[in-house]
Structure of DUF2889 domain-containing protein:
Amino acid sequence: MPLSPPVSRQLRHRRAIRAEAYERADGLWDVEACLTDEKPRDVVLASGVRPHGQPIHELWLRITIDRKLNVVDAEASSDWVPYPGLCQASNPAYRALIGLNLFRNFRRDAARLLAGTAGCTHLTELCALLPTVAIQAFAGDVWNINEGAPGASASSERASSSGAGEHSNDKPPFQLGRCHALRFDGEAVQQFYPRWYVRAPYTADRGASSDGAARHEGEGGNASGMNGGDGNEVQSNSQTEGNHA
């Protein structure tokens, strides 16, 4: 359902965040995120007047990952900033993301390495998007999200040939049991994934990640549950939204 009709109001600020994932010719993947801040009027900044139509921020963050979600390269760019020539000094700090894994405490480690004066507040905010964007990109392409039956789709064949054992035929599709709509005893699973209806597997990884997510909900104010204490960042609802293939 759409939001309820708003009361009379006036736009004062717009922040746009977009993210895209690309499969590269060399077999790696690029995940790019961009944050833009604009105001519908001229703005007086400490560095001078920013005319209407020119962004206050336009910030880019790109990571390169392999098929196991390891970060093998990272770079940041600050094209529009409130303090030109000064904000850009933090861009090289984002190479600290190299060596992290999007599935293993990525948000916690990114915050530890880049929070506060170590980096740019808004570029560090973009780090939180990267795990779910990568998962959305891999779903149905690198990872099988169907029933797991042999020959279910070309993408599942690719996943199998790549050695993605987590998505083999004896295990449920990745997204099941990770959000309210896709609970194992729910209508969506009964209708679209009948093989797995009320057959929730209690494996070490799923059980531990559920427990870890509950523990982490109060840690650092991150209620998304993405960072389990065991390092399995797999509990956020947004990870599987739209993966109902």
Q: What stands out?
A: The longest helix spans residues 204-216.
